[in-house]
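User: quick one, sequence for these tokens?
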């Protein structure tokens, strides 16, 4: 039963031809004169056979309408999917804007019960996030005073991760420029969803603030998730008016805080779930064609009807 429900038609509009069959059946049921020959008597002429009665509607449907219906179904190309693969074109585009300022060298985070730098914790969580999204094109912009491209959008995630590990820290924190750069590196002509994930441990100290240039992301339909990390959490009253919070909410994204590696991991997991759209869409790469069956059965029925009427059934001359 499930296999029958999986049948699709390559040309479903051809099935509209089935609407003609009731009209043909109605015309055929109209009374017709029975072919006859006027003779004075049938005495001695029984060997000529019986006068054929009008063909019944059931017989006509069997030999004519049913084969025609099967032919129409065959022309609509019924087929059944066999085998599927995930379609990598269904992913999204993600640019990571990561703070690589000098303050990221502070050793106030823990990883596997060891004190590590903020950068080490960020790289660890970012790597797991990237490897968990194989269908997405992911790029990386690192920034200090100025942003610099570490990896363009790519499906070669291992290369992007290695490039991130090889990036050095610098001075300053230009958050606005980083958001602008990340948005610029997203492909404007792509029909994929576009996301920027910004992670920083400080306030903007160079260039415009994120909320001042967020209009560009809104025009390009880019969603911003901003993450503030560090041992000290911003109180809710301050967080509500934080520049990163305003910028994220304008684009439809969210603002998060993380004061340790576990919290940062949880935020990445949440973003991962928020952006898990219908990526389990599949494209069928192998089809089992079924059109031969209705065409063959219809042809056999039509041939059987022709043999019955032309060869096996005796008619008056």
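Assistant:
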């Amino acid at each position: 039963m499930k296999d029958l429900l999986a049948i699709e038609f390559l040309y479903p509009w051809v099935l509209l031809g089935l609407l003609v069959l009731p009209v043909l059946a109605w015309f055929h049921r109209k009374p017709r004169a029975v072919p006859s020959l006027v003779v004075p008597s049938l005495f001695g002429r029984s060997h000529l056979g019986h006068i054929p009665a009008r063909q019944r509607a059931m017989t006509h449907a069997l030999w004519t309408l049913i084969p025609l219906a099967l032919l129409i179904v065959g022309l609509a190309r019924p087929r059944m999917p066999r085998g599927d693969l995930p379609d990598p074109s269904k992913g999204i585009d993600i640019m990571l804007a990561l703070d690589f300022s000098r303050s990221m060298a502070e050793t106030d985070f823990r990883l596997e019960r060891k004190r590590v730098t903020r950068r080490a914790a960020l790289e660890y969580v970012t790597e797991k996030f990237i490897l968990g999204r194989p269908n997405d094109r992911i790029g990386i912009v690192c920034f200090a005073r100025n942003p610099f491209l570490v990896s363009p959008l790519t499906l070669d995630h291992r290369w992007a991760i290695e490039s991130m590990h090889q990036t050095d820290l610098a001075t300053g924190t230009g958050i606005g420029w980083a958001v602008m750069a990340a948005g610029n590196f997203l492909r404007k002509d792509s029909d994929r969803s576009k996301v920027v994930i910004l992670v920083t441990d400080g306030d903007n100290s160079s260039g415009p603030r994120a909320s001042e240039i967020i209009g560009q992301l809104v025009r390009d339909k880019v969603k911003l998730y901003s993450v503030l990390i560090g041992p000290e959490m911003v109180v809710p009253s301050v967080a509500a008016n934080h520049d990163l919070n305003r910028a994220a909410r304008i684009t439809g994204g969210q603002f998060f805080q993380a004061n340790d590696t576990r919290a940062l991991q949880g935020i990445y997991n949440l973003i991962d779930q928020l952006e898990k759209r219908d990526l389990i869409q599949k494209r069928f790469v192998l089809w089992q064609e079924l059109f031969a069956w209705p065409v063959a059965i219809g042809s056999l029925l039509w041939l059987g009807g022709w043999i019955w009427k032309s060869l096996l059934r005796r008619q008056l001359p």
